[in-house]
Amino acid sequence: MPSVDPFLIVARVLVAAVGVWAVVSVLLSAIRTVVVPRGESLALTAFVFVGLRRILHPIVDRMGPARRERVLARYAPLSLMLLAATWSVLVIAGYALVFWAVTDRSWTESLEVSGSSLTTLGVLSIPGTPTILLSVSEALIGLGLVGLLISFLPTMYSIYNRRELAVAQLATRAGTPPSVPVLVSRLHYIRGLEELDDLWSEWEAWFADLEETHTSYPALVYFRSGQGRSWLTSAGTVLDTAAVVTAAIDVPVRPQPQLCLRAGFLALREVADHFGQAYDPDPAPDDPISVTRAEFEACLDELSAAGVPLRADRDQAWREFAGWRVNYDAALIALCAVIEPPTAPWSSDRSPRWSPPFLRTVWLARTSGFRESRSMRRAETTG
Predict the structure, then answer these.
(1) Span 300-316, pLDDT tens digits
(2) For residue range 49-86, what is the model confidence (pLDDT) as tens digits?
(3) Can you tell me the distance from the alpha carbon of 235 to that of 268, in angstroms, rounded to the nearest whole number?
(4) How far apart are the first and last CA of the chain?
(5) Which residues contact 246 (CB under 8 A, 6 or more apart)?
(6) How many helices (H) and strands (E) does the chain have?
(7) Cα–Cα 20 to 30 A to 250, which of 46, 83, 106, 231?
(8) How far apart (Å, rounded) are the C-alpha atoms in residues 117 and 138?
(9) Which residues of 336-353 are buried (b: 16+ CB within 10 A; e: fewer)?
(10) Do 296 and 168 share a structural domain?
(11) From CA 325, how far away is CA 239, in angstroms rounded?
(12) In angstroms, rounded to a whole number, what is the distance separating the alpha carbons of residues 247 and 318?
């Protein structure tokens, strides 16, 4: 009877354990990405998205604005497809390790059988009940991943269409890129600034929907709007308009713009949390903001020239505006750096250039301190 090498047995057990771990990790990543209703920060997803972004970053930087926008518009769909391909490749590799560990086949044969099983081609198989069961389980996983994608993509595009409807409607009122003076002036001409409660209510609901969907499906953040628009700069314009109306426009004070402001800065903070962007969760009203007093005065001058009634005390108006803006200023500018939207006043025109993090930094952020700091920031914000 031939002797059995104990080292080979230990090696096969360890290889099988690594393969099972790889398959289980991929399944958990796919489920937490697609099925879990509240999005989670996953190292594998971050590696794929950041890795592709690092490849595209030096190329995009040398392009003109129009071509650059076209390439960035394809970044999110390509990343999603690459993520699905990564899941498949890792499952094939994991099962190949298991096939090698439980049979006497070579690495190449194990890999071929694993690929045939996942794709349900069935052109290759290894006789024996254990290996047949392994092939069947891998085929079921392959079908499950396809099913997840079939249900995942329509959901993503349904949310995208819902988001972009409001963005397109805003463009007819605020222009492209959106501007606070243009939006306020047109609202003043069209309907009067006293009758805007429905506008604030619509965007309050939009922000609530944004907070839920763009943390459940973070890839949506990278899906760009069309025609030179951006969901993020549109959101910033609405918040700035609500702040200007509340602080400087001579109309009766109503709670609706303030509720819209609160819904907006909480939504942007939640999305910024998910992407690990830093901000002060409890800023003081007089903390510095990225909008200067001169820019604010220029905005009021444009509104005055358009016949918009303004309050006499501009110093007080500036203090109130800055007191609102400070709640979302850092989150807005940080997210502009992440997704690099088209240039728009008071938002992407002052955001720093995106610097791709090292993949090790992404791993640490997704596996250790980021979750804890995110929970602490949310608790402080809620409190």
Answers:
(1) 999 999 999 999 999 99
(2) 888 888 888 888 888 888 888 888 888 889 888 988 99
(3) 9
(4) 72
(5) 253, 257, 258, 261, 320, 321, 324
(6) 14, 0
(7) 231
(8) 6
(9) bbbbbbbbbbbbbebbee
(10) yes
(11) 8
(12) 7
Non-local CB neighbours of 190 within 8 Å, separated by 6+ positions: 173
Contacts of 25 (CB under 8 A, 6+ apart): 44, 90
Last residue of a domain, one of 125, 148, 171: 148
pLDDT confidence of 357, banded at 50, 70, 90?
A: low
d(CA 219, CA 209): 15
CB-CB neighbours of 53 under 10 Å:
18
Residue 95 CA, distance from chain mean position: 32
Question: Which DSSP helix (H) or strand (E) runs through 129?
Answer: helix 129-174
Are 176 and 197 contained in the same domain?
A: yes
Decide: residue 288, CB within 10 A, 0-12 exposed, 13-18 middle, 19+ buried: exposed
| Cβ-contact 262, 144 below 8 angstroms | no
Cα–Cα distance, 6 to 100 (Å, whole number): 16
With respect to residue 119, please indicate whether it lies within any of the assigned structural domains: yes
**Does the residue 371 lie in any domain?**
yes
Assess whether 131 and 159 both reside in one domain.
Answer: no
Give the residue-averaged pLDDT of 24-29.
89
The reply to whether 94 and 185 lie within a common domain is no
Q: For residues 211 and 265, what is the distance between their CA atoms, to the nearest angstrom?
A: 10
Domain count, the chain: 2
Q: Are residues 70 and 160 in the same domain?
A: no
Owning domain of residue 238: 155-382
Tokens of 21: 């771990």
What pTM does this model have? 0.83
Same domain, residue pair 143 and 195:
no
* Separation of alpha carbons 193 and 183, rounded Å: 11
What distance in Å separates the CA atoms of residue 39 and residue 126, rounded to the nearest whole number?
39
**pLDDT, mean of residues 108-116:** 88
306 neighbors 181 (Cβ within 8 angstroms): yes
